[in-house]
Amino acid sequence: MNAEVKTTTCYMCACRCGIRVHLKDGDIRYIDGNPAHPLNKGVICAKGASGIMKQKSPARLTRPLRRKKGSERGAGEFEPISWAEAFSLLEARLRKIRAEDPRKFAFFTGRDQMQALTGLFARQFGTPNYAAHGGFCSVNMAAGMIYTIGGSFWEFGGPDLERAKLFVMIGTAEDHHSNPLKIAIAKFKRAGGRFVSINPVRTGYSAIADEWIPIRPGTDGALMMALCHELVRLDLCDRDFLAQYTNAGYLVNVDTASGDEGLFACANAEDKTNPFRRHDQLWWDRLANRAVANHSEGADPALEGEYRLVDGTPVKPAYQLLRDRLDECTPEWASEITGIPADRIRALAREMGVVARRDSFELPIAWTDSWGRKHATVRGNPVAFHAMRGMAAHSNGFQSVRALSVLMSLLGTIDRPGGFRHKAPFPRGTPPVYSRIPNSPDAVQPNKPLAGAPLGFPAGPEDLFIDAEGGPVRIDKAFSWEYPLAVHGMMHNVIGNAWRGDPYRIDTLMIFMANMAWNSSMGSAEARRMLNDKDADGEYKIPFLVVCDAFQSETTAFADLVLPDTTYLERHDVMSLLDRPISDFDGPIDSVRVPVVPPLGECRPFQDVLVELAGRLGLPAFVNADGTRKFKSYADFVVNFETEPGSGQGFLMGWRGKRGDKALVGEANPDQWEMYAKNNCVHHHPMPESLQYMRNWNQGYHEWAQQMKLRRHPDPIMIQIYAEVLQRFRLAAKGKGPSARRPPPHLRTRVETFFDPLPFFYLPLEVQCSEKEKYPLSAITQRPMAMYHSWDSQNAWLRQIHTHNYLFVNPETARAQRIADGGWMQVESPWGRLRCMARYSEAVEPGTVWTWNAIGKSPGAWGLEPDANEFTKGFILNSLISDRLPGPGNGISNSDPVTGQAGWYDVRVRISRA
Ligand code: SF4
Predict the structure, then answer these.
(1) Residue 402 in 3-state DSSP?
(2) 110 CA to middle of ligand 1, Å?
(3) H-type helices in 536-693, by residue range?
């Protein structure tokens, strides 16, 4: 018998732990954690260990399939075809679209980890209609933080629990950063740290929190504002941090008659450090009692007060405007909204402020700041936060996350030990300017790549991707006046918009790894109806649907063409610095997957399919000058692709250069995959200590990051207490400001209201339009620790842990409706009704009911038996959620009006005994 162990990277969830796959005679015997891996250090979870059952899934797709002629979508009746037929069918269709109107091809992907490749394919094809799943996941967390502090939680930053003393977690049950966070929390608690969890439900990590503070869903923003109010009132903010490293001292023009109202007053000094970002904003120097350029030698900025510039313009420091805003946000005000007693809010704010000051410490690490000032130490204020989708997935989430970011900044915890720390390639600008989206429909031309990146970070109305009338260019309306900062796109709008033809009809929708007909749609029954709906001529309204997946799901049944993907154990993958690496606080880390077993049947890695398709279509980045294919396979592409000819920057940063002796930048190395495989599939590049902290303003770091092509410009990344970028949109809505672009009349109030440069709280849009008496409860979902969305419904081991779900109800709430523990009940929202089983739980606040996401299944899906619990007892809450809310015309999308984030957790319901 031939036994061997191969290392690769897990993909049973998005955390990307290192694993060892133990094989005997080529068969997988078991999988365990890789102790030599920097992320999980040998720890493995139930999902990771159950990867073997994914290989044996009854739902595996093994051949390309075409919908049978005459069969209806949804019936799941297919005929197998060869890959040659599948490619020629797709190639012909896409070639025609590309030559006529590339917008007619929409390419949207789910929880994949290859967006650098899929985005490149879309851009090269020339379609603007591309995005991954972020818009319906946690874009508010990413955008709210990146626009404020230049980084975000999870792979781009997180809590430094090694040195924190107080850890506050908000809206997080099970996390994407699962095993590393578990390891860090365990260590933190053993070292005596205090862990507070703020969540409507006490599950997952909250189970081991020292204190659980139940909160009503969608009200986190009010709590954050009240905590800020208290920190300011008690004078517990880090003044020096605010003055030097944020824009708190920048002077804001407060002349309401001025065209520049709400913009920063500037010295009009020339500064070439970054052509996309000014650095000449004015301070009011308290010592000289006059306006000076920020960070002028010897100046000390006023953070409070009101002043007049020499030309008479009235100005206030941004911090004063924040103070004015916070005045009304008392703990009593927040208590009414959140359900948390006012005294508890006061005590929490005091605890944060006191720990940040009393336990403050200095590390003997010398560094130089962006203004050339040398520091002998790095200071730590040991209060750390972590927040995720529970805070983000509301239509008020962007401003709530802004409020959290401001709170973290008031405490002086950004990129400092014991607080929040960035991970490479972050920090980036606020907002980043490295990838610029096009701002005119002219960017889309037949047979040409898109003139710009499909996704990016608008910094003002000029960056919106709109036409001359102000209408959207993209099918999902991202980067339009409706959702100006939809930085992750809006996958949840695609089926509805394409079906309505709003803004236009498409021809082919290609979906990769997303269960859009079931748990990934708001209102899944409606999504299925739209996929199946036909025009008067008998043609489907969405004419051609390609689904690429490894498993038969509810969505594959609607496909016209199914392309069978491999599992994570059968292919090459990269967790790239160009995309979503696994970096640590101390430096960049990227990692790979390598095949440990051959693909089942005729499965092909989707990346290989894309590289082949791109070659056949002659997309410029994938072909030589003579039109021949440049890359044999995805593995070949990864080794040889460069971001620009001769840039030396590719998908992998490790073992670059001809001999593999360079990191981050260097020529292609033909042996790169082997070197990763020999080194636990991971490359770690720790930076010198002097570059590991205060990276927003660390000169040494910026020089290094520029050399390594992580940043284009070496300018400081100022924290945006006051987000001038938002004010630029707001001014346009008021008919003022530097941009000539104006929102269409029906969106002006919306833009003016929600693009507030200071964080503010408003009730989620759906809550505002729901009848509170009729639907008194909030309904939310969570992902269980033992399953990752719908990925594990067919996993024989994991189904023994969750084979169906309950609706968890506080006993007090359930008894009031005479609903028994374990009894059947009815749940009704304005959008639908379902039957499910109740489970009493003290671990949920009385105004909320909740369930596990994506365990309930549609009969016949996922290769399950006809009487499987997943559909006899299980349910999904999506049928109670709507992607539209009442509004003019077709209504408005149930999304955040700033970022387009899906408002998953805003639905209101009532319950009764069934
Ligand atoms: S946390 Fe995720 S990546 Fe890590 S072992 Fe578990 S399933 Fe795999």
Answers:
(1) helix
(2) 18
(3) 606-617, 634-640, 672-678
Tokens of 686: 């720790």
Run of H or E including 851 = strand 848-852
Instruction: Provide the CB-side half-sphere exposure for 897 (13 A, CA).
Output: 21
Structure tokens belonging to residue 426:
């972050």
| Residue 575 Cβ contacting ligand 1 at under 6 Å | no
Average model confidence (pLDDT) for the chain?
96
Section 660-678 average pLDDT: 97
Query: 3-state DSSP call for residue 656?
Result: strand
Q: What is the pLDDT of residue 135?
A: 84
Tell me the HSE value of 546 on the side-chain side, using a 13 A CA sphere.
25
Q: Is the CB of 591 under 6 A from ligand 1?
A: no
Q: How far is CA 696 from CA 419, 588, 690, 700, 719, in A?
A: 14, 16, 13, 11, 8
Closest of 566, 529, 564, 568 to residue 547, by C-alpha: 564
- Using the atom order of ligand 1, give the atom closest to the CA of residue 40: 4
| Sign, Cα dihedral of 135, 138, 144, 145 | negative
Quick check: 664 and 653 in contact, CB under 8 A? yes
Q: Is ligand 1 within 6 A of the CB of residue 785?
A: no
Is it the case that residue 838 has pLDDT exceeding 70?
Answer: yes
Which one of 21, 45, 573 would you pick to mutate in the ligand 1 pocket, going by the greatest count of ligand atoms within 8 A of its CB?
A: 45
Pocket lining: 877 vs ligand 1, CB cutoff 6 Å: no
Output the CA angle 14-17-23, nearest 5 degrees. Answer: 115
Q: Which of 9, 41, 44, 567 to mutate to test the pocket of ligand 1 (most atoms within 8 A of CB)?
A: 44
Taking only the tens place, the pLDDT of each residue in 327-382 is: 999 999 999 999 999 999 999 999 999 999 999 999 999 999 999 999 999 999 99
Does residue 813 carry a pLDDT above 70?
A: yes
Neighbours of 661 (CB within 10 A): 10
Ligand 1 atom closest to the CA of 13, numbered from 1: 2
Give me ligand 1 centre to Cα 359, in Å: 34
Q: What percent of the chain has pLDDT over 90?
A: 93
Binning pLDDT at 50, 70 and 90, where does residue 112 land? confident
Question: Is the CB of 832 inside a 6 Å radius of any atom of ligand 1?
Answer: no
In this structure, the number of other CB atoms found within 10 A of the CB of residue 135 comes to 29
Given the CA of residue 788, which atom of ligand 1 is nearest to it?
A: 7
Q: How far apart are CA 279 and CA 275, in angstroms?
A: 10
For 840-889, the pLDDT digits (tens) are: 999 999 999 999 999 999 998 999 999 999 999 999 999 999 999 998 87
Handedness of CA 507, 131, 895, 518 (dihedral sign): positive
Q: What pLDDT, in 10s, does the model give residues 371-417?
A: 999 999 999 999 999 999 999 999 999 999 999 999 999 999 999 99
Q: Average the pLDDT over 200-206 and give the result.
A: 93
Q: Does residue 111's CB lie within 6 angstroms of at least one atom of ligand 1? A: no
Confidence at 137, pLDDT banded by 50, 70, 90: confident
Ligand 1 contact, 17 CB (< 6 A): yes
**Ligand 1 near 12 CB (within 6 A):** yes
Supply the pLDDT for residue 1. 63
